Amino acid sequence: ASLELGPYRHFMQKEIHEQPRAIADTIEAVMGANAFVPELFGASAGEVLREVEGVQIIACGTSYYAGLTARYWIEAISGLPCSVEIASEYRYRKVVANPKQLVVTISQSGETLDTMEALKYAKSLGHDKTLSICNVPESAIPRASRLVYYTRAGAEIGVASTKAFTTQLVALFTLAVTLAKLQGRLSPEHEAEHLDALRRLPGSVQHALNLEPQIIGWAERFAPKQHALFLGRGVHYPIALEGALKLKEISYIHAEAYPAGELKHGPLALVDSAMPVVVIAPNDSLLEKVKSNMQEVRARGGELFVFADDDSQFGSSDGVHVIRAPRHVGVLSPVVHAIPVQLLAYHAALARGTDVDKPRNLAKSVTVE
Ligand code: G6P
Question: Taking the model in full, what pTM does it have?
Answer without folding.
Answer: 0.96
